[in-house]
Write a structure and sequence with these properties.
By secondary structure, this protein is of the alpha/beta class. The mean pLDDT is 93. Keywords: Exonuclease, Hydrolase, Nuclease.
Length: 764
Amino acid sequence: MEAQYEWQLKATPTDQDLQAIMAVEALPKAAAQLLWQRGIKTPEAISTFMHPNVGQLHDPYALYDMQTAVDRIQAAVMGGEKITVYGDYDADGITSTALMQETLESLGADVEVYVPNRFKDGYGPNLDVYKQLVENGTQLIVTVDNGVSGLEPIAYAQEHGVDVVVTDHHELPSTLPNATAIIHPRHPEGQYPFSDLCGVGVAFKVATALLEEIPYESLDLVAIGTVCDLVSLTDENRVLVSLGLQQLQNTSRPGLVALCQSAGIEQETLDATSIGFGIGPRLNAIGRLGDANLGVNLLTTFDEEQAVEQAQFVEQQNKKRQGLVQEITALASEMAQTPENQASATLVLAHEGWHEGVLGIVASHIVEQTGKPTLVLAIDPATGQAKGSGRSVEAYHLFKALDAQRTLLTHFGGHHMAVGLTMPVDQLAALQTAMNTYAADNQIDLTTKPTLAVDLQLALADVTPDVYQAISQLAPYGTDNPEPLIEMTVPSVTNVKQIGADQKHLKFTAVDQEAQLAVLAFNRGALYDDLQAVEQLKLVGQLSENTWRGNTTLQLMLKDLQTSGQVLIDQRSNRLTQQLFKASGTYVFFNEKHLAQLQSYIPAGSQAILAADVAQQAELIVVDEPTDLDEFEAFYRQQQATKISFIFYSKYSAYLDGIPDKKQFATFLVYLRQHPGIEKARLGELATYLKIKLPLLIFMLQVFFDLGFVKIECGLISAAEQPEKHALESAPSYQQRLAKIDMEKQLVYSTFAEMKDWLAGFNQ
């Protein structure tokens, strides 16, 4: 089994480096190594990282235009002006909107909220919406998690007497809008000490300035938006998320309490992973499928009954989102496997009826499966337009590739790894050609595996609760402070199980002498058979705790795995079923008649060949038995497969039937002498009469024929009148049977461990 990634072990510090770090905080060795690898080496940096606190937060007035923004908002509050908070439909936008709404309401402001609709309004300031806000009496617009790209809508608002305060964190355009104030951590005229705040982080800084104190009760929202937006979890963001997690674990917000309950999240032990894989996808599902205003209401409501009702609806939306992703991904995967797409360096997959809100997730799945930059688009036959999302790999700058093709596109935006676009359907093929040309012109090798940075190499016996606790001191994990990846080599695995409703996940136990560790492998159910045959396995994954019925144990969340050498799979059977012919690969036959008889069983995309013709095929399924061990050895030595499955089917077993004794031979021969001219068609009746199995009777007859004891003429069997004397063992058929018995004993009726040990001898 080949690794999906190219594993790269991070540099290892010297003992002197480790001792220096361990002396600062009395840290265990594993934690000290992780800090060193992350560049956290000085006493000040170590202390700051290990003890995040509010004293590490930067002055909100260090943000450019903050004083102007505060003055304008306070004037609007004092003057009773109508303020509209203009938000966004993802988790960062929803939490930003909720935080700003609560802040302004606490100041006594007249506040309304507008969260754009993904499908109707699109991302960011929408001119038609701004016109409506102006018409409806809004006097101040405060954007959150958007605005810097809203040149035209903001100009319209300002020209019509409506001021706009922008709070945003997205990429800055070459020309900034003419807003009253622009609060942005990377403002070209500012010098804010931390550039990677997300939308809710910027909103939090504005709230802190407006309230003239830190709004601790809002830190739960800040933690959610910061984790979900995948910004750097260092510096100020590490503080915000650390404090926010504490707030989340004790939050009294009815909406968050209900959301955790409906999602099955233990609020008391909630961490960044719970946000990233539990809370975030549910909040995002609201905007992906409908009106994200529901998310703002859920986070801000004080009505417990309403919160439970809304959380249940969110759960339904998330399940609907999961179903759509699964359905579209399955079809997109099929499309990706057409001969044309397999030959293409990039993928452009478009189809009618796909839900636009989930296409980015689908594109990510296809990239993960294929390693190819991928666009996934929904076709609208009424307009002739295709709209969707794209995802890429590190080596391929998707934004640059598409930016050079704007003449083919109706709308387009994004960055290195992700884009959104709308384009005419009749330009899809041209765009894919252009994407392939970009890869060729820039000499981008898309066949290389993505890299996986491994933090620690540990023996299974070294994976202890103490090590886990040491590693956990570096949490919360996220961008620029990833959860540590551990590599380990395990001699064997046991208790391999397929889990999940559709059996697509795996659970097994890694074993090394007395040490054991449970391993969870999501979306790796197809490896079930392979893992049954593994002798030694290398794993990379992240440690976590699993609590079941009050008992807490460690487990490894698998990221990647690999084996060295050949994978052997035991499918030995004396019955051929359709199930044995489901795998793709090359089906190998020793018997030419079997190959002809079973040709119709071979699945599409696979082939059937004789053992003598095996050469470079990667995956082999050996269907029938060889004649003897010599024939098998000749086959095994010439093959170069990475995986071989053994069925070794035979209609009759020489090993189980054995060889008749001399008394049985004598009884049969005497009968033939007494009853000349027996029809071959009546051998079955004769076997019953003599109480000898028919296959044995046929074998005995062959021996007699080889030795000249009988003759067969015109289908009639008779004993020879005066045959020469020969030992039964001298008959070729007798020797062949002995060889077959020896072969079956070694290959068919041995334990699989015995068989693998025997095969290992060929590699020595």
